């Protein structure tokens, strides 16, 4: 299975992507881009003031390696954040996070019950996002600086556009222009060849 990522075109923090109930406790699952995790957590805490836990896990590609992080947010250690992280690993998600909001139902679930409940909420959230077409193949992206003479500038802009890349900055020198280009790493490598 190729690595996947979350495309947040229709994300709405007011509507959970999944809901799971276990012995009276409600678990609301949300899939978000890793870059939006902090703002989403703040928004969810404002929208769900009676919820007792905001558990999350994330996987991101940074500096040539996969970074993983999780939080149990007050649940017993290893009972919630790590199970959510394991679901992200199983789906091979990159630059994505899952947040599970828990409303306590009055019955303690025990560590095993918490693991199962948080795992199920994360799976349901990812399945729902997939059904909505929000889980897409991960494409590794990057940025390059390319220096061209003024006579080659127009041709380079054409080539950048043809490869599906984007010029995000230009520095004009006396004899040349440095273009800062972002996009798919494979296309960037093709541009350099």
Rg calculated over all Cα atoms:
21 Å
Biggest sheet features: 5 strands, antiparallel
In terms of structural class, how would the helical and strand content be classed?
A: alpha+beta
Could you say what the CATH architecture of the largest domain is?
2-Layer Sandwich
CATH topology value of the largest domain: Ribosomal Protein S5, domain 2
In the CATH hierarchy, what is the class of the largest domain?
Answer: Alpha Beta
Shape: elongated
- Provide the β-strand percentage band: 35-45%
CATH superfamily of the largest domain: Impact, N-terminal domain
Mean residue pLDDT: 89
The total strand number stands at: 10
Poorly predicted segments: none
Supply the number of helical segments.
Answer: 5
SSE run? EEEHEEHEHEEHEEH
Domain module tally:
2
Strand order of the largest sheet: 2-3-6-4-5
Gap between N and C termini: 29 Å
Oligomer: single chain
Task: Please characterize this protein's 3D structure.
By secondary structure, this protein is of the alpha+beta class. The protein folds into two domains: 4-137, Ribosomal Protein S5, domain 2 (2-Layer Sandwich), CATH 3.30.230; 141-192, Alpha-Beta Plaits (2-Layer Sandwich). It is 32% helix and 36% strand. It has five helices and ten strands, in the order βββαββαβαββαββα. The chain has a five-stranded antiparallel β-sheet, with helices on both faces. A hairpin with a 2-residue loop joins β4 (53-62) and β5 (65-71). α2 (81-90) packs parallel to α3 (110-131). The longest helix is centred in the middle third of the chain and has 22 residues, at 110-131. It is elongated, with a radius of gyration of 21 Å. It comes from Helicobacter canis. This is X-Pro dipeptidase. Residues 23-126 form the Impact N-terminal domain. Belongs to the IMPACT family. One of its GO terms (biological process) is regulation of translational initiation.
